[in-house]
Amino acid sequence: MNRKDEHIKYALKYESTGNSFDDMELIQCSIPKYNLEEIDMSVNFAENTFEYPFFINAMTGGSKKGKEINRKLAKVAKECNILFVTGSYSAALKNPDDDSFEVVRKENKGLLLGTNIGADKNYTAGMKAVEDLKPLFLQIHVNLMQELIMPEGSRNFNEWEKNIVDFVKNIKVPLILKEVGFGMSPETVKKGMELGLKTFDISGRGGTSFAYIENMRGENRFSYLNEWGQSTVSCLLGLKDYINKAEIIASGGVRHPLDIIKALVLGAKAVGLSGTMLRLAENNSTEEIIEIVNSWKEECRMIMCALNAKNVKELQNVKYVLYGKTKEFYLK
Ligand code: FNR
Predict the structure, then answer these.
(1) Helix axis angle, 257-265 relative to 286-306, nearest 10°?
(2) Which residues have any ligand 1 atom within 6 Å of their CB?
(3) Architecture of 3-331 per CATH?
(4) pLDDT (tens digit, 9 = 90+) per residue, 165-195?
């Protein structure tokens, strides 16, 4: 089976053992200030304004199944006016006949589109991705533990830093440094800023586990690492000092509008969903997903109203309670 199809297969099979969003409770408001229709959900990051605070995050491309999923989810994104990010463009670079990425552009004029490439790649790969897809931004993914577990994964990492610097120097669209579900530490964000980056998708633990996926693709030798990394909420709490210095995007284990709003309360500029969108694509028609996503937009507004937040910035004033493992992490 194609590697990209195996990622999809095992991502669908995995069930996370815990989700840090369940350790967080928002303090609601009883005497509201705003009418529902006054609430503005727009967000700003990577030099763009988006009408809604959540998006479909990087997943696939590079196989027939990947093309079908890209096609379906890009159509949903276009119809709902939300952002869609393709999976790593390296699959298209390996195979010039591959049309599983460009299909999203071709079939959806005006689509809000981002694309993705690995930090192991030379900046010329990023330039080609940008030239071909004309995205609003390029995500550079960092996936160390995935590479280490992956049977055919890279074993050389000391070029990543130089590659990132070259991306910063040469790529003309905004860049986002992105984890893949293991979480990002303040030290990583600090280092990324020193390398010239401004925007970080901390993609934490709680949803898709690439440790599990690669273990299943291989001989499952390292199953004890399936829960590797830091949870999304823990990462956001740890990055409090960076909320106003950098642009922090949240992803990892986001299931529904309440998780989206919790991430925004913790200072995220926007929120990405991968595994949840993959499951929707697998189990529903395009029309059904459009209906669900359109409803999510209204549900986000509803929850913001119940928290007395007129806009996403005001969500940062919302008080919250932490429980369990996440609270313990925060106290240390
Ligand atoms: C991914 N993810 C991913 N990330 C990335 O930067 N480049 C990629 O090509 C892929 N490919 C990919 C394939 C599949 C099938 C899945 C489910 C995910 C990682 C993704 O963007 C995200 O960081 C993690 O999945 C965590 O978010 P969720 O899935 O818990 O919402």
Answers:
(1) 40
(2) 7-8, 11, 57-60, 87-88, 116, 139, 141, 178, 180-181, 203, 207-208, 251-254, 273-276, 278
(3) Alpha-Beta Barrel (3.20)
(4) 999 999 999 999 999 999 999 999 999 999 9
